[in-house]
Automatic annotation (TrEMBL):
Its cofactor is Zn(2+). It is found in: Endoplasmic reticulum membrane; Vacuole membrane. Residues 163-348 form the Peptidase M28 domain. The gene is LOC107773272. Residues 1-23 are annotated as: Disordered. Keywords: Endoplasmic reticulum, Glycoprotein, Hydrolase, Membrane, Metal-binding, Metalloprotease, Protease, Transmembrane, Transmembrane helix, Vacuole, Zinc. It comes from Nicotiana tabacum (Common tobacco). This is Vacuolar membrane protease. The lineage of its organism: Eukaryota, Viridiplantae, Streptophyta, Embryophyta, Tracheophyta. It is a multi-pass membrane protein. PANTHER family: METALLOPEPTIDASE M28 FAMILY MEMBER, VACUOLAR MEMBRANE PROTEASE. One of its GO terms (cellular component) is vacuolar membrane. May be involved in vacuolar sorting and osmoregulation. GO terms for biological process: proteolysis.
Length: 907
């Protein structure tokens, strides 16, 4: 036996055994060029960005009215509507600005009616919704009743004039006109309203050939708890004719409007995939949204759960950090955004409205459950959409799982005890890889709040996470895998020394390294194999990604590398195996991954539901763990190629330099955590707190409160504002729907801007004590038509609420959350302000309502009334508020003036 020198074969790593005249010749090089590895990393980075850019940033050219004619979609026309609506400023429910917005949309729809095709009927209804109560209990609605009154919607029905049966089979297209009090709403959702108006104009020229009517619902009250959709479904006579619902929404400003909820019937998404010119939609987004990771809801939930409808839910998701802030403005709306959604929707409506096979009947039962064979969907580079049904997916997944089990069992049986130990040790390398990747990233997550002015310094510059978390995650993943690799090599060296006693030790060592590399690659297959089993068992829609990441590398490995003979000596893995195996997985998933991470980074602005309740590092931990998981899942195959290469030192050096540069930029403040266009969510509220029962005469306590749903203290902001603010956790505030555990407060001039006549009243009218105790309470919200009432369910078994003579919330089962049932009321200017509440006490009530962490007894009722009024001390603070801050609005947050009151148990 003779061994050729390594230097003569380093340019082409290979291993082979030849036998001739009883003399063995072994050519073996267990080494790979570092330049090849570095080139692969560059290819992965460049390819990932290219896929993301093409899939999510590549928008169509905006078209003018002359280019599209009467029947096409023109962004130039649609953008006029966005400009007109945003010029009104914020237009929440009950505001004069919303009345102006409704009038604008009404005039636009009247113009559409006048210019419609002569064979098309256009019916216009300015619908005034009576009082109602949304009693849904799923998701964000647990423990709540959403009550509304005096809402106005614009409903437009377009149908063929000479096919009256079409009106009994309608497609609903819906969005909302109202905004939160803090935003002019260019994205959420003036862009949606504008698209609908332009769609309606186009559809009015096509509908003479339709077999179904199209109803366009421009609703109000969505931002206060999906009240517009609820009132339409429960009160409007046309709602009974709707067989499919399409909802248009926004979680940011512009970009591609993609489908993030579909079904439960697959018919809609299947036809959208066939019709859309620029299809965009990912079931990954649906899985994330339905998991509750994103605390939000859309009108689509009402259409699905309450009306039992199937359909599609679209959303803009670029610039999610500006959601519900002052930066939801027109200048951030990218050209082509409206054209993308408009052309897709117009093509889809023309297809389904002319179809004779539009599904009829309920898609879900009374509990919101569906027996339908749901769809799995995803787009490829925004050019083609793949849709297949869950039943087929289960068959496919089961087939791959069974084949994988058969192959693994056969392989282990032929390899014997050594193969089983090698599999166990390669699995250990996976575990170590995950531990180190997450550990390295978490270390950074805990350090960032100590060295940065903000615990989430990457919000305005999301690319920073590549260096701050991505580099440590890759370094940790490689370190953990390398430790597992060394343990595996040590074991395999002993194995080869027993099997090939005639081979030199250096050859045995090289053989062990080559075999260990193969086992690490196969461990990556095992990782995705396990994920496929879990996803298939729980029917997770995005399990197709696990299939792709398993099947494609396994095919490449089986085609180019695998052998069923354990007697053959291992060879180095071919680079082409990696290229073939990872091309499809990266094509299908890299753009989604970047988009998902960007969305979650933007969501960090509104991370804290109860300000001060979470540690500052929590947001970093979530991002760090996510990026570490992505690194372990997607780079497991590539990292297995590094251990016998000369790229180990360059990889460590590059990741350390990248991390060092990013951390230095954060520490020195080179890149600010927030900017004027990507602002921190800060709320300024003039609070008037009555504390105890209104029946007892006491002086109200007034102050200006400052708090933030964005992690981090407010010291820097307070220093710029001045006005005597003090920050800390000493004076927590209970706003009924949430609590402020860390905030800032000032009593400077806090006694002006409000009047005692504005203070709401809670008065006990009658109390019948005994085993069946009943208490009648009157509530006067005075100037407020937006209020929140908490009812202590530890003491109260049931209740009903009336607004004047009208019953708003009937007696019946009501959910609770943390011992409270919350009533959220919002209405227009004519909404009632006086209410009667009847409380039915629990028979065995024993004053259980005591805070677990103190001796303070919880009240029986707690009330917050909101007034959309900026008092003079609040105006002073808002003028001095740093430009990197913005008010943040949602249905549970107070307006700029809030009155707090309560009723004690022992009233």
């Amino acid at each position: 036996m003779r061994q050729r020198s390594k230097g003569s074969a380093q340019s082409k790593p290979s291993s082979r055994t030849e036998t001739s005249n009883s003399e063995d010749t072994v050519v073996l090089v267990a080494k790979r060029s570092k330049y090849v590895i570095l080139a692969l990393f560059v290819l992965v980075a460049y390819g990932t960005w290219s896929v993301y850019q093409h899939q999510f940033l590549n928008l169509p050219k905006p078209l003018g009215a002359e280019e599209v004619g009467k029947r096409g979609f023109s962004e130039h026309e649609a953008i006029k509507h966005v400009k007109a609506l945003t010029q009104l400023g914020p237009h929440p429910v009950g505001s004069d600005a919303l009345d102006h917005a409704l009038q604008y949309v009404l005039q636009a729809t009247e113009t559409i009616k006048e210019k419609a095709h002569w064979e098309v009927d256009v019916e216009l209804d300015l619908f005034h919704a009576k009082s109602g109560a949304n009693l849904m209990v799923g998701g964000l609605f647990k423990g709540k009743t959403l009550v509304y009154s005096d809402l106005n919607h614009i409903v437009l029905r377009i149908s063929p004039k000479y096919a009256s049966e079409a009106t009994e089979n309608a497609i609903l297209v819906s969005s909302h006109i109202d905004t939160v009090f803090s935003a002019e709403g260019a994205g959420d959702c003036s862009s949606c309203v504008a698209v609908m108006l332009e769609l309606a104009r186009g559809v009015s020229q096509w509908a003479h050939g339709f077999k179904s009517a199209v109803i366009f619902l421009f609703n109000t009250g969505e931002e206060e708890g999906l009240n517009g959709a609820h009132s339409f479904i429960t009160q409007h006579p046309w709602s009974d004719t709707v067989t499919m619902a399409i909802d248009l929404e926004a979680m940011g400003v512009g970009g591609k409007s993609g489908i993030f909820q579909a079904g439960p019937q697959p018919w809609a998404i299947e036809n959208f995939a066939l019709a859309a010119k620029y299809p965009s939609g990912q079931i990954v987004a649906q899985d994330v949204f339905k998991s509750g990771a994103i605390k939000s809801a859309t009108d689509f939930q009402v259409y699905q759960e309450l009306a039992g409808l199937s359909g599609l839910d679209f959303a803009y998701a670029d610039n999610t950090a500006v959601y519900h802030t002052k930066n939801d403005k027109l200048k951030l709306l990218k050209p082509g955004s409206l054209q993308h959604l408009g052309e897709n929707m117009l093509a889809f409506l023309l297809k389904v409205a002319t179809s004779a096979h539009l599904p009829k009947g309920k898609a879900t039962d009374s509990r919101g459950k569906s027996g339908q064979d749901t769809a799995i969907y995803f787009d490829i580079l925004g050019a083609y959409m793949v849709v297949f049904r869950q039943r087929f997916a289960r068959m496919l997944y089961n087939s791959v799982i069974l084949q994988s089990i058969l192959i693994w069992t056969t392989s282990l049986f032929m390899g014997g005890y050594s193969a089983m130990v090698s599999l166990a040790l390669s699995s250990l390398s996976l575990i170590l890889m995950w531990i180190c990747a997450i550990g390295f990233s978490l270390l950074v997550a805990f350090v960032l709040p100590l060295v940065s002015s903000s615990p989430i310094p990457f919000v305005s510059s999301p690319w920073l996470v590549v260096g701050l978390f991505g580099a440590p995650a890759v370094l940790g993943a490689f370190t953990g895998q390398h430790v597992g690799y060394l343990i595996l090599v040590k074991y395999l060296t002993k194995t080869f020394s027993r099997r090939n006693v005639n081979l030199p030790f250096v050859v045995q060592d090289d053989l062990a390294k080559l075999d260990a590399e193969r086992w690490l690659f196969k461990a990556g297959l095992m990782q995705w194999f396990v994920l496929l089993i879990v996803g298939n068992f729980y029917k997770i829609g995005s399990s197709y990604l696990a299939l792709v990441w398993l099947a494609s590398p396994a095919f490449a490995y089986g085609l180019l590398e695998a052998t069923l003979s354990p007697a053959r000596l291992p060879k180095p893995l071919k680079t082409v195996t990696l290229l073939i195996g990872l091309s499809v997985p990266f094509l299908l998933s890299s753009g989604i991954i970047v988009h998902l991470v960007a969305t979650l980074i933007g969501s960090a602005v509104r991370l804290e539901r109860n300000p001060g309740s979470n540690p500052e590092w929590l947001g970093n931990v979530i991002i760090a763990v996510l990026i570490a998981a992505i690194a372990c899942l997607t780079l497991v195959y590539l990292l297995s190629y590094i251990h016998i290469s000369g790229a180990k030192v360059p990889l460590i050096t590059v990741t350390c330099i990248l991390f060092g540069i990013s951390l230095t930029m954060v520490q020195l403040g080179v890149v600010p955590p927030f900017t004027e266009d990507t602002a921190r969510a800060v709320n300024v509220v003039h609070v008037v707190d009555m504390g105890g029962a209104n029946d007892k005469k006491q002086e109200p306590v007034s102050r200006i409160s400052l708090f933030s749903t964005t992690p981090g203290n407010l010291i820097k902001e307070v220093e710029q504002i001045g006005e005597g603010f003090v920050c800390g956790t000493d004076e927590p505030l209970d706003f009924v729907t949430f609590s402020v555990k860390y905030g800032c407060w000032s009593d400077k001039n806090a006694n002006i801007g409000w009047h005692e006549l504005d203070i709401p009243l809670i008065h006990v009218e009658n109390d019948t004590k005994g085993d069946n105790r009943v208490t009648h309470v009157s509530i006067d919200t005075k100037v407020s038509t937006r209020w929140t009432l908490g009812i202590n369910t530890d003491e109260i078994e049931d209740f009903h609420l009336k607004g004047g003579p009208e019953e708003l919330v009937p007696i019946g089962d009501k959910s609770n959350a943390d011992g409270w049932h919350i009533i959220q009321f919002s209405g227009g200017k004519k909404a009632p302000r006086k209410f009667s509440l009847t409380l039915f006490w629990a028979n065995n009530h024993t004053h259980k309502s005591q805070k677990k962490d103190s001796n303070t007894e919880q009240p029986l009722l707690k009330l917050r009334t909101d007034v959309d009024r900026i008092t003079s001390p609040t105006e002073t603070v808002l003028k001095k508020l740093p430009q990197w801050c913005s008010l943040f609005g949602k249905s549970t947050s107070p307006l700029t003036l809030a009155f707090l009151s309560s009723l004690s148990i022992d009233f």
